[in-house]
Fold these 4 entries.
Entry 1:
Amino acid sequence: MLSILIPTYNYSALPLVSILWEQAMENGVPFEIIVLDDGSSDTSLWEENAKINTLPNCRFERNEANLGRAETRNKLAQVSRYDWCLFLDSDVIPVTKDYVKTYIDFIGKEYDAIIGGIRYEDKTADSSKILRYKYGKSREENKADLRKQNPYSFIFSGNILIRKAVFVAHNYSSLGNFYGLDIYFAYQLYMDNVPVLHIDNEIYHLGLEDNEVFFRKSLDSLDSRIKLLGNKPNIDEINSLLKHYNILRKRKLDRLIASLFRLSEPVLKKLILNRNPNLLSFDLYRLGYICTIKPI
């Protein structure tokens, strides 16, 4: 009935798998849990994650090289047994004790993809990770009622139940090891009008990146976003940043914004990378940065 599929990189997936295994066993349905390590550089975690193999219906495997999350998810789908796949990232924990049951109740119904949402724990974040925490709390932690208003704008592949055939048909693994490709996956679902449902079945995102790492990854995601999606029809419908970018470009203002960005970039960066990150400055930085990138 259900394949629970978890890519991991330099992270112990054992705590998450233990919780999911217990919840799945309580529901008495056919299931499997597969964790695939994507060439982790921290080899000490191999032994820890190998303990997953001691749990019935669970197994841990490894990529010999780092292929990226998209290709790793693709490999997980290929080796999975059941028609429904629950994809999670390894650095999350379910919010509720009936997390698995809530998803099981939607299997076989009219929707092909069900997104449970994401939350961040209500605690003071370490200053070295405050940008990722503040961004997550402000921009990603949305209830289902809000996400339903624009369902393809809130596709999060780190907590999604999806028909395997639909995932395989729309996966983006052939694009290579890009960062931040959830938006590309969402666009494929949007263009094919795949039925998507948002529910409140959240996970806590625990593995926060350091400020500089998240900042750099955010810019990397803009590179892939503009190059892969900048000229796509109807992209404005699912991504607000590309919507604003396309407005500027149509009005021939993108070069002006790029020039202003180059002048203001050091000031904006200081307002972002500090103990109290300014998210408006982060938005302006990303908009200015994306205006400096040439679409393919």
Entry 2:
Amino acid sequence: MILLALAGPTAAATAPVDLPALAAKAARRFPQPVRVADLVGRRLLEPAERQAVLGRVRGAVRRADGGVDLSVETGWFSGRTVAVPTEAVGLLGEHVALLDLTPEQLQALPAAGSAPAVSPEETIRIGLVKPFH
């Protein structure tokens, strides 16, 4: 289990991100093989009808447990590049949707810079999602 500190005025609180629970949800999304290179540049969208852009995928990194996180540059949102678990996202057409984390939890994710990069040619699995509207 990874603990994430919430950003903002309630920074003293922590919100746990349960990777096994995220993996169980992701498995029900009909995971599809996709090359990491095909994800680069895709927008990360908020899972709401307005589909706000939360960042852009810059690549993928490998976690210590062997799982894969997407390296997402959040730009104006928080100005950082964070490691978003693939278990918490889904493919939505040409975009990637943030599904099981709030925008506040996204801001609190660890930086992606220190983890080993996944080759752009490597194939990973990400589930499919339906449009939000």
Entry 3:
Amino acid sequence: MDGQGIIMSIILGGLAGWVAEKIMKANIGLLTNIILGIVGALFLNFILNLLGVYTTPIWYVQFIVAIIGACILIFLWRAIRGRA
């Protein structure tokens, strides 16, 4: 997450992971929510940068990117495990 401090990244990551958990109807814990939110934001920012799309470091833009990225990670996890 560009432009965010480590504490704000953890808070936004946790919230984004929680929202993604509710959207995807997954049953995961708090630590997994935080990890999915942070890794999801990093993952989607990386993919968008490869495609030439650069997101702004504003917190609400990064929050939306983190939610979408976490949803993608949950979807990929289910597809790999065969529960999609």
Entry 4:
Amino acid sequence: MSVDRQAPSPVAKVEENLPAPISRLIQLRHTIAQPVFAAFLAGGVAGAVSRTVVSPLERLKILFQIQSAGRTGYKMPVGQGLVKMWRDEGWKGFMRGNGANCIRIIPYSAVQFASYSFYKKNMVTMEGEKLPPSKNLLCGALAGITSVTFTYPLDIIRTRLSVQTADFSHLTEAQIKDLPGMWRTGVNIFKIEGGVLALYGGYVPTIAGVAPYVGLNFMTYEFLRIYLTPEGQKNPSSYGKLLAGAVSGAIAQTCTYPLDVLRRRFQINKMKSMGYKYKSIFDAIRIIAAEEGFRGFYKGIVPNLLKVAPSMASSFLSFELARDFFVSLGDDDA
């Protein structure tokens, strides 16, 4: 009995006759074009673009967050804070910690977008199905937890680099130059503060804040896209994507900001110069409420909101542009 075999496609026949290097290049292009892999690469691009655009405001937000009742070095309006940063440290002050931030945000954003794509793919029960907001919220929350778990030590190092020169006007230029960089900071945390566990200090409040933040971000973005870039619209406007990203980021950040403050406080909890010695999350909440009031949980919210709109807008837009490019590499006629 004869067995019918499906004839190879014309494209497959062509690829069989190509030299090995060219054939491997074509296979690589098809691999890159896979949805989850394309989302991973595009997420890295999106992270680098979005963080560099708002680096000065990102650092100022952190400096505001760590101000306690007895520390007033950056207890001022946003504009004055940026002027002080420029006057004290110049352009390097605006970009301080951004190298570590980009090194952190590229894998963080890559894992986040890729895992969101993965979780969405596994939530869908039939082709073309649109997930309800609740499932987008869940997928986003899981993506946030996944990305934080993989990259958290880099976030602690970035925070330490951002604050180590702030309000230390008594240091000489030589002493400032001798401050530890990214690698030395990580090694010091590991050796002095308690090994691997020290590199995950504040992990629990971080997860508590990141999971709902990322979930709300993706859910709101997906919801707004329905109205701002209607399905079936040819060449949807980039302005609609930018607006959807800006609004979703602002809503998510405002709702979860107190948890972000707790995260930053715990990341510097063991720095002797900062004066924080919180025993637990509830202890931190009690102390901040007693010493700084309700506003203590929203320190840095203004520069944060000023940065979140361009940050998330550029992140989602650059992600979609990069993802579409990587997916197009798999087209047979490319």
